[in-house]
């Protein structure tokens, strides 16, 4: 129920702060992140918890779904409900969860390999369905967990030991694909700006429909040159638009480092009639052995 004014959640459960009094720390688990030193995902995690604190949703009303990869560890580092799914299938699981439980705030998190390679088909159709969930992709243009292979967003001329001289394959453009496929909200953030990223994530969650936020999150272990992204990112030069044609022109001429909301549309949100969903008890009975 991600409308512009979020309803109050139920009374707090044991160990939680009273409703309306949540801070970023209330969304963090006791598990210590194990990303490489300097990884941008550390600040993405911080931005996510700050965004949830802005929205004041009780942690037990938030579900984080992920696939496989460095960024997909995020659910374990929060106090929210979490599902660490199989490779490339996070959006399928998140979509099903939101349709079955529209009362939950569903956030899907992943990386450029998980989301755009094996998960590319799910990405297209999740945008098209326009279910009310938020997809955060930490994009570092490399497969970090599996030691530095080129990913779908890697530059074709990136020279490395696994692809000497580069792959020669044109890079995938996720924002263009998201817009063309029907995403209702398209934005880009930079992990080096944690407060700005938190604000964008909060906007994405509030916006009805499928919201997509690409977060540039440097992998300084396998792409140390990405430290230079801090000097390349800049605020988008024009305000957000709800005109897909105008947004398409902007994104197609984008340099890859415009930060902000690029498109905020008004497509009707997909919902499943309550009569077809059934209540939680009936769903549980379907899985009884």
Topology:
Blueprint: H1 41-55, E1 62-66, E2 81-84, H2 90-100, E3 105-111, H3 112-118, H4 120-129, E4 134-139, H5 174-181, E5 185-190, H6 194-206, E6 211-216, H7 229-232, E7 234-235, H8 244-252, E8 258-264, H9 274-277, H10 280-286
Parallel strand pairs: 1-2, 1-3, 3-4, 4-6, 5-6, 7-8
Antiparallel strand pairs: 5-8
Helix pairs in contact: 1-6, 3-4, 4-5, 5-8
Radius of gyration: 18 Å
Shape: globular
**N-to-C SSE string, H for helix and E for strand:** HEEHEHHEHEHEHEHEHH
Strand line-up across the major sheet: 2-1-3-4-6-5-8-7
Mean pLDDT: 89
Strand count, sense and closure of the main sheet? 8 strands, mixed
What would your notes on this structure say?
The chain has 289 residues and is of the alpha/beta class. It has a single domain (39-286), classed as Thiamin diphosphate (ThDP)-binding fold, Pyr/PP domains (Rossmann fold), CATH 3.40.50. Helix content is 30%, strand content 15%. Strands 2-1-3-4-6-5-8-7 form an 8-stranded mixed β-sheet, sandwiched between helices. The longest helix is centred in the N-terminal third of the chain and has 15 residues, at 41-55.
Relevant terms:
289 residues; 8-stranded mixed beta sheet; 8 strands
Brief overview:
This protein is an alpha/beta fold and 289 residues long.
């Amino acid at each position: 129920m991600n409308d512009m004014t979020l309803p109050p959640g139920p009374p707090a459960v044991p160990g939680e702060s009273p409703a309306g009094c949540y801070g970023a720390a209330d969304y963090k688990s006791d598990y210590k992140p194990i990303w490489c030193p300097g990884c941008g995902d550390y600040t993405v995690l911080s931005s996510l918890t700050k965004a949830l604190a802005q929205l004041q949703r009780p942690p037990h009303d938030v579900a984080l779904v992920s696939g496989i990869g460095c960024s997909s560890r995020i659910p374990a580092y929060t106090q929210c409900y979490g599902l660490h799914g199989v490779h490339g299938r996070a959006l399928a699981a998140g979509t099903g969860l939101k349709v079955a439980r529209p009362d939950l705030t569903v956030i899907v998190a992943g990386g450029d390999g998980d989301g755009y390679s094996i998960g590319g088909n799910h990405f297209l159709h999740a945008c098209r369905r326009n279910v009310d969930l938020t997809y955060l992709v930490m994009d570092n243009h490399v497969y970090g967990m599996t030691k530095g292979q080129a990913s779908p967003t890697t530059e074709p001329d990136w020279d490395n030991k696994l692809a000497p001289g580069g792959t020669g394959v044109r890079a995938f453009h996720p924002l263009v694909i998201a817009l063309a496929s029907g995403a209702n909200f398209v934005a880009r953030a930079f992990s080096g700006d944690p407060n700005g990223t938190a604000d964008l994530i909060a906007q994405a969650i509030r916006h009805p429909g499928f919201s997509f936020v690409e977060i540039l999150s440097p992998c300084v272990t396998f792409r140390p040159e990405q430290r230079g992204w801090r000097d390349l990112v800049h605020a988008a030069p024009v305000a957000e638009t709800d005109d897909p044609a105008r947004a398409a022109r902007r994104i197609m001429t984008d340099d890859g480092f415009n930060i902000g909301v690029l498109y905020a549309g008004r497509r009707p949100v997909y919902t499943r009639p309550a009569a077809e969903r059934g209540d939680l008890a009936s769903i549980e009975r379907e899985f009884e052995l």
